[in-house]
Amino acid sequence: MNATKNKKMIIKGAGKFMAKIPNCDELITIGTLNNMRLDIQLDMQDIEGGDSSVALDTLLRKKTIDVTAESAKFDLNMVRLVLGSKLREGISGSPYSMVTETVVVPVESPYQVTLTQTPIAAPAPKGYQGAIGGADLTSDMSVTGNVVVFDMAHAGKTVVIVYAVSSKGVVHDNDGFVWVLEEKHTVAQAGSDFTVELVYGGNLNVDPQISVRTLKGNKLLKKTTGASPTEFQYVVDGGKLKFNSAMKDVEIYVNYKRNEVVDVLDITTKDMPLTVHVVHDGQFEQKDGTIQGYQTELYQCRVKSNFTIDAQRQQAATHSVTLSVIDPERFDGKLGSIKRYAIEGSSALDC
């Protein structure tokens, strides 16, 4: 008698999930599933007749097969699966991108560190003690190539360095930006001016849309092009904001747009959810030492339910999508298959 692969098995885990465009490339593979659920629902209607309280027969009105995948990691391709829009990769609003790197200044001479990438000359690298927005150490450091040398007074300190690197292989586009939200500063006197310098001031978008509010009073300050701003006005001077002397030592926060290299998924009115080919595979070790597996393959599916990005305080967000099987219109009438198998070479005896 031939050995069968269809032994009973215990499923201990969620397995892996793949969705691909039919007869085309893979769209998304999820190897960090939190949950995987296959629901088969049958809508049955009784056929009744005569005086009997028992149905004569039943009529299958509808067969619904849903598959739900919940992932621990966020992937834009999962959103693309739901929206159907194109994913544009490597979009930049400028020919360079900004890099943030945290270093610790050596406690002994020559007080230098080596950056992972080589900064370009403009915009010039900037250094902050501890974190972005901390004490500005830019004047106490010099950059040659990718080597940064600090003044000995900063030996042992943790410094965050923000610098620009050339962007190779990127596409310049108006969507190549991100918003900086609630960047906090204190207006300080610099000579006869009262200014703050934006962290990404050297990488402002062509349309930065800067907005400034006071931290305590939440007062919205107005932008002016005049040389002498009044108490509740400011002037944009490159990557700096200039204020009236009455704003000295006032804490503010700034929102603005800066250039960045991004992947963009457009949300439009016309795109439809993608039709995908779905494969779920699970391989699980059994108590007899064998590796038993099962694989579900559904030929054509489309999104059925809402897709939610549920970001919560002090919680790791998970993201799930439910797909419903649609008729692939195959000549054999198949919607998919469920396969059972055993990994060859497992240690248990087949008896």
Describe this structure in words.
This protein has one helix at 76-83, and strands spanning 16-20, 26-30, 33-47, 57-71, 87-92, 96-104, 112-114, 126-129, 141-144, 147-150, 158-166, 171-172, 177-186, 188-190, 193-197, 211-214, 220-223, 233-237, 240-243, 251-259, 261-265, 276-285, 291-303, 319-325, 336-342. By secondary structure, the chain is mainly β. The protein folds into three domains: 16-86 and 269-342, Pnp Oxidase, Chain A (Roll); 92-166, no CATH class; 179-258, no CATH class. The strands form five sheets. Strands 1, 2, 3, 4, 22, 23, 24 and 25 form an eight-stranded antiparallel sheet that branches. Strands 13-20-16-17-18-19-15-14 form an eight-stranded mixed sheet, with no helix packed on it. A three-stranded mixed sheet has the order 12-5-21, covered by helices on one side. A hairpin with a 5-residue loop joins strand 16 and strand 17 (220-223). The longest helix has 8 residues, at 76-83. The model has no long low-confidence stretch (mean pLDDT 88).
CATH class of the largest domain: Mainly Beta
Shape summary: elongated
The largest β sheet comes out as: 8 strands, antiparallel
Straight-line N-to-C gap: 11 Å
Number of helices: 1
CATH topology annotation of the largest domain? Pnp Oxidase, Chain A
Query: What is the β-strand count?
Result: 25
The SSE order reads EEEEHEEEEEEEEEEEEEEEEEEEEE
The overall average pLDDT, rounded, is: 88
Q: Classify the secondary structure makeup into a structural class.
A: mainly beta
Please indicate the percent range of residues in DSSP E strands (runs of 2 or more).
Answer: over 45%
State Rg: 30 Å
Number of domains: 3
